[in-house]
């Protein structure tokens, strides 16, 4: 017989109430982290830390290597005053790690961050935990070292100058000049010409495009560029601002174009499982004639072991125009790499010296040492610049207007959905209308 | 010694430390997560009490409901297959291989010790298409068929995931059920044989009823582990294509850690816990009814 003791019931009830009360208190009490002194960001009112700690992604060893090189040479004095220390995280864990650090008031001086986090309405932006580099570097007298095109791109993507442009990338179509010559082709100027060229290249035994479908974005970029050429450079800002919908016919046409390319077999066998390295290898060994990618591919192109078609056979062209479209071939998609923000609370004079030194020297250092094109001015002579890198440099200097990429302004959930659903689109399991309808619904629900 | 163990104070002194650790490490986090499911936000943005909003959101969230069905479907198919094959293997060990089963037992159990992510990558390479094509498509091509990109379709990914789960875990269930079968007294089996029972009849009328308790435990183990499947599906195809093979655990992970929505993530975790509870109780109730019958 189970007899319930009134005393035991009281104890249990009391414990339960205490647990709920403490949970409610703990959970509800987590107010936003204290302001990072946003009003003062730009002055050196922050307090210098004991080390200049930089949190970067495991996937980006270049940045760590170049900062180390600066610390040993051009920024030696800054490094002695405030030693450089590296912390690493997996890129996929960035949001989790930075959220945790910020909530514990433990953000390092310089850190990688998620795109949405550093926007004015993002978690770090709202909490004023990101430094405005323009204000800060202007005060430090080093702002002139940031290329205007790069700062414009950072402002377009993040809504404020909260990332240093360690990279400055254009995106376009890399192509094999020898394969084009063999098939009697010139650089296509329109999408129809691109399609016709792909057919000719396929007939000549080349896989027209090498795209790493396993990542999603190499495919959505093609769709996005079709949309930018068709709708114009405001295509995605119109979506963000609610002036257009992804279900509008001119946007659906982009998804249709991508699906058609896939159905024509332009991406080769099993492209949805192809990893980035395999796609790059397919292009650089001459199996594939084209690859839509960013100028970060230069490091692979400049590597003689990887590049078996020869640097002289690598061409770079913009995504072609779409007949009747409002966009033009001169509008290149550009980005400035992953967000690298700074903690305003730790932006003291020594940190300012570090950032000034980076701004002044990184451009030359990275170009000379790693062939990386950054958004910093190249102060000083760089010798033996590879042919393709010099060509891209020239292109960058000619560009007057840039556009973003398809997912740039989407929220994190919609961004992920755009990439993951593209397999269903390219294999015909999802119609272009369904793909865009799902994405639009996500934008409306999470935007 | 009996005096010591009979003393309530001694019992309390011995029990309190492990109990305190258990409460701190198990009960508090569970209650904490339960509490969080009534809030919205994260540790940086802060938390806002939203009552049952997260639960109503879950009920209308297409992606969450899809994940729920993926979880249930995967758990049911994987449980039925791994317990069935495990049981067949156990019968093989006991009645065919007998004492010579040690090598086969070890060989079948071996995949269990491999890391799940490594197994997923292995199976991914088995079904690869293109230049470095895997053996599965080589066989299909050998018989005149065209290569199939398994990872590009929901059915292909799910089939690969089920085969992978079966390959890596049926050895465990085989060993578990084997120990249960060893507990059946030889006399009973001999008597049944003398009474004319043999083959399927012996298994159906004698072996299965006598090994029911261990079968029940296996089903509960299997359901609870497959309902919480995470790493293998993530490593196999990232929950894709699209989100069609994304279980609740993966959706919970992405919600909490990629989108920094801890409150809604906790709600999904709670739904998963309730799901495990419902399945376990259902299995228990159905088995107890059978016993009463």
TrEMBL record, chain A:
Coiled coil: none annotated. The keyword Signal applies. Residues 1-24 form the signal peptide. It comes from the Bacteria. InterPro entries: Bact_solute-bd_prot1, SBP, TAT_signal. Keywords: Signal, Transport. PANTHER family: ARABINOSE-BINDING PROTEIN-RELATED, OSMOPROTECTIVE COMPOUNDS-BINDING PROTEIN GGTB. Belongs to the bacterial solute-binding protein 1 family. This is Extracellular solute-binding protein. It comes from Microbacterium oleivorans.
Automatic annotation (TrEMBL), chain B:
The chain crosses the membrane at residues 12-32, 68-96, 108-130, 150-181, 202-223, 262-284. Its main location: membrane. It is a multi-pass membrane protein. GO terms for cellular component: plasma membrane. InterPro entries: MetI-like (IPR000515), MetI-like_sf (IPR035906), UgpAE/MalFG_permease (IPR050809). It is found in: Cell membrane. Pfam families: BPD_transp_1. Keywords: Cell membrane, Membrane, Transmembrane, Transmembrane helix, Transport. Signal peptide: none annotated. One of its GO terms (biological process) is transmembrane transport. Residues 68-283 form the ABC transmembrane type-1 domain. CDD domains: TM_PBP2 (cd06261). Belongs to the binding-protein-dependent transport system permease family. This is Sugar ABC transporter permease. It comes from Microbacterium oleivorans.
